[in-house]
Structure to design on (263 residues):
């Protein structure tokens, strides 16, 4: 049965799918859409990560492996059958791994390709017909500043995030005439579950902080606000764009550290 959305808010009457919604940026995006009147299908790999969805009829949790084509089709069907259509898709699910080009098991690279690239392609393919039925819509994808440059020991992550950036650009061209927009957000150092290990290593945490212009890590809510704009009607002229939400880390050549924040 179709649930009635809130009558006010930037996303009122709009239906979204958010993957990787169990924590971090994905959860922050889903919660923002709900606060602004939207309805959400929140997807993650484990039911345990979606307990936050309880308590409102405007969000439906779904435990799926986004690297599976059938799972992506099921998410779209769930959105359409439950809420009556689909207006926006946030393809946020992703994994990171570290290891040199010589030592990282190739199976880990293959899994990174499946989740970080293949799953995005599947998500776009599955959602495009439902977005077309609504006269258009918006797809926003989580990449990374690491998809624009290299990092030591992170070649698999760098390569897959670079691939998804150009995948999004190409999809924007393929789907733009039908008013289906595709954009990419590239976060930098952000407080999420994926970065917990770095947050527990003072030297690594501090090194990343010092490389940002703001001299601080971003919060998941700050990055989510960028997604909220990209999947809203306010961003109608924006497609094929790569938006850096990285605190200015990508503005630096890397030769010099930015000034410290004054006391």
């Amino acid at each position: 049965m179709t649930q009635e959305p809130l009558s006010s808010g930037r996303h009122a009457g709009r239906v979204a799918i958010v993957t990787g919604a169990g924590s971090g940026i994905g959860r922050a995006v889903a919660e923002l859409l709900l606060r602004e009147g939207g309805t959400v299908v929140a997807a993650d790999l484990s039911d345990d990560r979606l307990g936050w969805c309880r308590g409102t009829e405007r969000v439906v949790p779904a435990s799926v492996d986004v690297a599976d084509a059938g799972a992506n089709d099921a998410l779209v069907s769930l959105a359409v059958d439950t809420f009556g259509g689909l207006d926006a898709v946030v393809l946020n699910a992703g994994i990171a791994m570290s290891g040199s080009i010589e030592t990282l098991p190739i199976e880990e690279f293959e899994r990174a390709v499946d989740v970080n690239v293949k799953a995005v392609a599947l998500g776009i393919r599955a959602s495009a017909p439902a977005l077309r039925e609504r006269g258009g819509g918006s797809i926003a994808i989580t990449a990374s500043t690491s998809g624009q440059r290299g990092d030591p020991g992170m070649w698999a992550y760098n390569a897959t995030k670079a691939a998804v950036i150009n995948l999004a650009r190409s999809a924007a061209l393929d789907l733009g005439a039908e008013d289906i927009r595709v954009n990419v957000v590239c976060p930098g150092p952000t407080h999420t579950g994926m970065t917990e290990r770095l947050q527990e290593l003072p030297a690594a945490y501090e090194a990343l902080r010092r490389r940002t212009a703001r001299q601080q890590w971003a919060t998941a809510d700050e990055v989510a606000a960028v997604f909220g704009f990209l999947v809203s009607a306010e961003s109608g002229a924006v497609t094929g764009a790569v938006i850096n939400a990285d605190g200015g880390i990508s503005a630096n050549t890397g030769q010099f550290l930015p000034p410290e924040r004054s006391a």
